[in-house]
Amino acid sequence: MFQRILIANRGEIAVRIIRACYELGVETVAVYSEADRHALHVRRAHAAYPIGPAPSRDSYLRIDRIIDAAIKSGAEAIHPGYGFLSEKAQFARACAEAGITFIGPSPEAIEAMGDKVNARKTARAAGVPTVPGSALGLSDGEIEAEAERIGFPIFIKAAAGGGGKGMRAVNDVDELQRALPSARREALTAFGDDTVYLERLVHPARHIEIQILGDNFGNVIHLGERECSIQRRHQKLIEESPSPLVDDEMRARMGDMAVRAAKAANYNNAGTVEFIVDKNKNFYFLEMNTRLQVEHPVTEMVYGIDIVKEQLRIASGRRLRYRQDDIKPNGAAIECRIAAEDPYNNFLPSIGRISTLTEPSGPGVRVESGIFEGFEMSLYYDPLMAKLIVWGETRADAIMRMKRALREYRVVGIKTNIPFHMRVLENTPFLGGQYNTSFIEENNDNLSARREAYIEPAVAAAVLLHHQRRQKAIVMPASDGPGGGNSWKNAGRRNSLR
């Protein structure tokens, strides 16, 4: 096992990796931009190195600066987290050239499966069904011709990434012409690569993915599925495992296809094979994410396996500790992505200082967070602040537990999407497991509407903030005036207000 690793990321995922490393006895090195100097991951790591200005292109996307920090810190390996450089074969190769282990798949596996078009070719060659699409590297004119061949509606997708960045659904040529420039710009900003391609849009559809683990000895297993159909603008909001749609037989077939695709690419480490499923439960390979997923905790909660620890074990050269027959699901888990967005104002990003924070806890509740009281939400990065994950013996138990946890969550100082999550969990089709990837768009007016029930937690948060400010005003009087400067007297007055 490694003695010290560098984490080339920020926010909640950096903190989550630090926790796994601590439990394995591995020291951690954080990197940070100028905007993240006081971030939680910087505080939690054993050491931290600056890598540049706030824009990610000048810091978290700078391979040279991250490699330099790893060398200076004595790190033996680099964990990329998700986003930023996590699916860059160039970064994995740079690590190898510097004598540093990349905690992820080989550069060859990233090129085979991280590139969306190459991934579909590899999957098709392995006998995995795929959605019709276009080639890479096409001009705008060539893309228009391909769109006519594939047939509308279609998706524009970024070749280098995921998470909805650079993705657009279009219904005709006019929409395609308008959407192409913005999709390319968004892909360039998020991934440093403006290459896009086309894919036929399956509708209605469900987005279901299979978590896999592969070692360096050709062993690959799957850890069941995650349902990720609750999306807004193609970005996942709520994920759950197991899927309400998938039965044991379908899970076995999808898992077999995912393992087959991974083996075809000689894939090692953790990865996710994503499928689109039509109304008749036919499933098609979409892409493979050659990295840790944001939603990996729901799989961990159901299967009892720490995926980050397995990543480190595999990268250090160990064999998989599990066979497929060892993998058994237990109960149900749901994840809500807690973001700094205003659900009552078209999900406008909400920036500013978090003045008060109370995170939920209790049986079956897990919070992966990168925030704290006093944390400044910045426009430079993704608005994801934390992930709230719950486990229950049944799906119904998990839903009730998530509703309880959301009611406990208090964030004062900025807006969050917590009320929106509560509305989704109270929606009848969601409760019945009858939803698809258009669920949010089709119910957005109802889900985003204000409701009186949410006034109570808002009032409670306002009272709490007022109480804290009042205490602060009383314990910090002028020290020179009459009656001031006596700390014992001030402490007594503060306690009397509790």
Walk me through what this model shows.
The chain is α+β, with helices and mostly antiparallel strands and 498 residues long. It is 38% helix and 23% strand. It contains 17 helices and 22 strands. It has helices at 11-24, 40-44, 63-73, 89-97, 107-113, 116-125, 140-150, 173-191, 248-264, 296-303, 307-315, 395-408, 418-425, 428-431, 439-448, 455-475, 487-496, and strands spanning 4-7, 27-33, 47-52, 77-79, 101-102, 154-158, 168-170, 196-200, 206-214, 220-232, 235-241, 269-277, 283-289, 332-339, 341-342, 348-349, 352-353, 356-358, 365-369, 376-377, 384-392, 410-412. The strands form six sheets. It has an eight-stranded antiparallel β-sheet, with helices on both faces. It has a five-stranded parallel β-sheet with strand order 3-2-1-4-5, sandwiched between helices. Strands 7-6-8 form a three-stranded antiparallel β-sheet, covered by helices on one side. It is globular, with a radius of gyration of 24 Å. The termini are far apart. The relative contact order is 0.10.
Could you provide a short overview of the structure?
This protein is an alpha+beta fold and 498 residues long.
* Major β-sheet strand ordering: 13-12-9-10-11-14-21-19
Low-confidence stretches: 477-485
SS-derived structural category? alpha+beta
- Distance, first to last CA: 49 Å
Q: State the helical fraction.
A: 25-40%
Count the beta strands. Answer: 22
Global Rg: 24 Å
- Largest beta-sheet characterization: 8 strands, antiparallel
The overall pLDDT, averaged over residues, is: 90
Total number of helices: 17
Strand content: 15-25%
- Overall shape: globular
